[in-house]
Amino acid sequence: MADQKDKADKRRHRLFKYLRKEVLPTAFCPGCGCGIVLNCYAHAVDELQMDPNDLISVTGIGCSSWIPSPYFMGDTLHTTHGRPIPFATGAKVTRPDKTLVVIAGDGDLIGIGGNHLIHAARRNIDIKVFMVNNLIYGMTGGQLAPTTPAGVPTSTSPYGNVEHPFEIAELVAAAGASYVARWTTFHVFPLMESMQKALTRKGFAFIEIRSQCPISYGRRIGKRTGTEALQEYKETAVRAQEAAEMTPEELAGKIVVGRLAERDKSEFTANLRQLNDEIRKKDAGRRPEDWSIS
Amino acid sequence: MDRTGYDRVLKAIGKKQLFAQGDEAYAYGALLAGCRFFAGYPITPATEAAEVMSQLLPRIGGAYVQMEDEIASMGAIIGASLAGVKSMTVTSGPGFSLMQENIGYAFMTETPCVVVNVQRSGPSTGQPTEPSQGDIMQAKWGSHGDYEVIALSPNSVQESLDLTIECFNLAEKYRNPVLLMTDGEVGHMREGITLPDHGKYEIIERARPSKEPGDYIPFLPESGKVPQLADFGSGYHTYYTGLTHKPSGLPSTDDAEIHTQLITRLCEKISDDTEKLTRVEELYMDDAESVIVSYGITSRAAAYAVKMLRAEGKKVGYLRLITIWPFPDQVLRRIGESARRILVPEMNLGQIYYKVKEAVGYNAEVIKLPKIGGIMHSPQEIAAALKE
């Protein structure tokens, strides 16, 4: 039996080694974009030849939090709703040598957990955040999210959404992240490259991934399959460079994709270490009686 | 902690004899227990602890992080602990309320960590600078679901330091969040304290895996009810979730048996050890017909009241609860069998009073003496309550 199982494993895809086999198949709905994101992430890790022992995945609550947790192999922390970034902050400060990856949804990261997102960007802590934005609370069955476009009916905005949605990538860029990009599940190769960039660049990196939820969102706007959403992403995506030349009217209904910010800025845990080194150097030359703390 | 680590902490603090606030003592105790990560958010009357940590942690190679709120602070100390370092946060009522969900998470994932609640007068914003004992029941029941915490309560600055060390030891031993339930009076008053000599207190470290990755089962105890803990990054690929989980750590959300086994083990690892965890202080108990049961700052007035009544020839005893949770039912049951009356002064409208009453049953009369508004009981009013 064991031999047969080994043989079956060997026939599988080369990225299979990154997955927790005992929890497959995934619980994602037909047409869901989460599988594409998982695929891109596994490819990015593989391309970089990263040691899974150096990766710590941290997630919140919602469908996209299940992308690494439990499906991706490695140390995994599946936290409370909206809080993966604070948990990751504690882990990163303690183990600055490890790569901290947060994968969660729009409801988690900008709805309930929005404050943590902008503060982590401000600190520029070396955490990689891949936010899957499906414009809806999918796991709970399709309720209004802070990303839901105006006018869209959801189960808690049955007469149409009267709120304005967040432009999250732009918000995180303004908050001070060192790398910000937006892609969609249609743009798998650029997304994969962008993930590699985020994983290797020091500092807070944020990728907003527009992704489809045919079951809880698509059906409310007349797009009942994943392919219809991918078609829409293909047709409405505008590269950031082109978007810069366009008027707000021209940009209505478009998805701006590509790199939105990249800046050199000192990183939080490096700053902490530098501070510790400087203080301890000073202390080494001091007499204990001058150490008074108050 | 080894001698070098101890000396480093001592050097950073500066001297062994200090005139310090309770809030400073929690910080000193934490550092002496090996705490090297602190996340917090300013709040009266607890802020001074964060200030001391921000000053001392960088000097001994630790990290202080000021988070954006108390939810984040609690999350960060859990993340840090699972990455292998002892961690703490210090807060007061409103912050403690915000931390509740993640305290439940720490219980569910068996993450060692210490939370100090310098209680202030609530509910809501209440009287921020005034002391209270109003969060005693919240400490036990604040997060949702069935769970157990360990909570200790100091009545002096020295004990604030000593019990903080104890909190860390218990957190590591039981893999559980441990609470130091103190108050704004203890937190802000100044008393002379002495830092313990190296070796005076045993410093406990969490049990780490004795087996190789692959053979190690994260939530299956090797013996007893507390499993070993693998630090993140040590190659064990541990999976932590707040969901109901199997011994492997992987979620199981619709199996009554797995949920029942998990929660029962998590609760029993604390409740089975109630007697071992019980710390009380007793005075004049041998012939006591009446007993004053108190905890925290209230016990200072209670002790004085007992001495006053004894001077008048009244057979009054003094019992101070140092362990609040798990509640020492056995001790109270025993006292209920010998004493006629039990008086419970508390800086709330009656919280531990109900636990005392429950343990004593109808064996003795249990009288509550509530006081709120941020003013402590005077020894005279406690004594007067027993004379009625």
Polypeptide structure, described:
The complex is a heterodimer of chains A (294) and B (388). Chain A has helices at residues 2-11, 34-47, 84-94, 106-112, 114-123, 168-175, 188-200, 226-236, 240-243, 248-251, 268-284, and strands spanning 55-59, 75-78, 99-105, 127-133, 179-184, 205-210, 237-239, 255-262. Chain A is α/β, with parallel strands linked by helices. Chain A has an eight-stranded mixed beta sheet with strand order 2-1-3-4-6-5-8-7, sandwiched between helices. Chain A has a single domain (9-285), classed as 3-Layer(aba) Sandwich (Rossmann fold). Chain B has 388 residues and is of the alpha/beta class. Chain B has two domains: 3-194, Rossmann fold, CATH 3.40.50.970; 279-387, Rossmann fold (3-Layer(aba) Sandwich). Chain B is built from 14 helices and 16 strands. In chain B, strands 2, 3, 4, 5, 6, 7, 8 and 14 form an eight-stranded mixed beta sheet that branches. In chain B, helix 2 runs parallel beside helix 7 (157-174), helix 4 (70-82) runs parallel beside helix 5 and helix 11 (298-311) packs across helix 14. The mean pLDDT of chain B is 97. Chains A and B meet through strand 2, helix 3, helix 5 and helix 11 of A and helix 1, helix 3, helix 4, helix 5 and strand 10 of B.
Task: Sum this structure up briefly.
The complex is a heterodimer of chains A (294) and B (388). Chain A has helices at residues 2-11, 34-47, 84-94, 106-112, 114-123, 168-175, 188-200, 226-236, 240-243, 248-251, 268-284, and strands at 55-59, 75-78, 99-105, 127-133, 179-184, 205-210, 237-239, 255-262. By secondary structure, chain A is of the alpha/beta class.
